[in-house]
């Protein structure tokens, strides 16, 4: 079993709370309140800024050129592709770049992103990669799963689903799995597994909390 499959099986409950969250089901059937999606988009923009920093840290923590290049390519993809796309999606939902810049990071965003950065700062590239893996691999599973169920043509969240179900993002996630499994083959020891599992479980819980914060935020409006 690959390292990713093993982590996912051992974190089955937390993984399910993330990929099968009420927010995700609402995206799939189009019933998600639009205020929740807007709140999510603003926080996700701030999230991506911190994730770019985490990939910068992965460049620093890498001890081979191929790992440095892989992390640098992801850093570039976040800063120059995904964030641009994000600004355009936000504009479609009535959110201007100025709204994004002015927004305060919510607790769920601070907790998740700083947890990942801390895992990477005190650990090595394997710790950091495990802490990052629910993000990139999870969104590919969510987008692919929703698309496979079939998305109504008038579902307002269809472009979001298609983005994460699309070949470009699925490729990014597939290479993240290959990297994780290779780092595991190089560095995993039985003693380390417990700590890696803890990182994976916590990151999955914090992803679920990120969805939940957007639902709570919209409900409080
Ligand atoms: C919170 C979160 N997790 C994962 C991704 C995937 O990039 C994202 N954009 N936002």
From TrEMBL:
What's the protein name? Answer: Aminopyrimidine aminohydrolase
Can you name one GO molecular function term for this protein?
thiaminase activity
Q: What are the alphabetically sorted keywords of the record? A: Hydrolase, Thiamine biosynthesis
Q: What sequence ranges are listed for the domain Thiaminase-2/PQQC? A: 14-216
Q: Which InterPro entries does this entry report, sorted A to Z?
A: Haem_Oase-like_multi-hlx (IPR016084), Thiaminase-2/PQQC (IPR004305), Thiaminase_II (IPR027574), Thiamine_Salvage_TenA (IPR050967)
Q: What task does this protein carry out?
A: Catalyzes an amino-pyrimidine hydrolysis reaction at the C5' of the pyrimidine moiety of thiamine compounds, a reaction that is part of a thiamine salvage pathway.
Which EC number(s) does UniProt give? 3.5.99.2
Pathway annotation from the record = Cofactor biosynthesis; thiamine diphosphate biosynthesis
Acetylation: is it a keyword of this entry? Answer: no
| Reactions performed catalytically | thiamine + H2O = 5-(2-hydroxyethyl)-4-methylthiazole + 4-amino-5-hydroxymethyl-2-methylpyrimidine + H(+); 4-amino-5-aminomethyl-2-methylpyrimidine + H2O = 4-amino-5-hydroxymethyl-2-methylpyrimidine + NH4(+)
Which domain of life, per UniProt? Bacteria
Q: Name one Pfam family in it.
A: TENA_THI-4
Membership in a protein family: Belongs to the TenA family.
- UniProt gene name: tenA
């Amino acid at each position: 079993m690959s390292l990713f499959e093993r982590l996912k099986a051992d974190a089955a409950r937390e993984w399910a709370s993330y990929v099968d969250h009420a927010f995700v089901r609402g995206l799939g059937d189009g019933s998600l309140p639009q205020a929740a999606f807007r709140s999510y988009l603003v926080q996700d923009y701030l999230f991506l800024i911190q994730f770019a920093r985490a990939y910068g840290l992965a460049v620093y923590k890498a001890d081979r050129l191929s790992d440095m290049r892989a992390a640098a390519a992801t850093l570039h993809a976040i800063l120059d592709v995904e964030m641009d796309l994000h600004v355009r999606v936000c504009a479609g939902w009535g959110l201007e770049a100025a709204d994004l810049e002015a927004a305060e990071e919510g607790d769920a965003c601070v907790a998740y992103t700083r947890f990942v950065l801390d895992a990477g700062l005190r650990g090595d590239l394997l710790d950091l990669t495990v802490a990052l893996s629910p993000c990139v691999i999870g969104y590919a599973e969510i987008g692919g799963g929703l698309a496979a169920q079939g998305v109504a043509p008038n579902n307002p969240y269809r472009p979001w689903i298609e983005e994460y179900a699309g070949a470009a993002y699925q490729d990014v996630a597939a290479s993240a799995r290959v990297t994780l499994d290779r780092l595991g083959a190089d560095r995993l020891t039985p003693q380390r597994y417990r700590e890696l599992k803890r990182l994976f479980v916590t990151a999955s819980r914090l992803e679920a909390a990120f969805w939940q914060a957007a639902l709570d935020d919209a409900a409080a409006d």
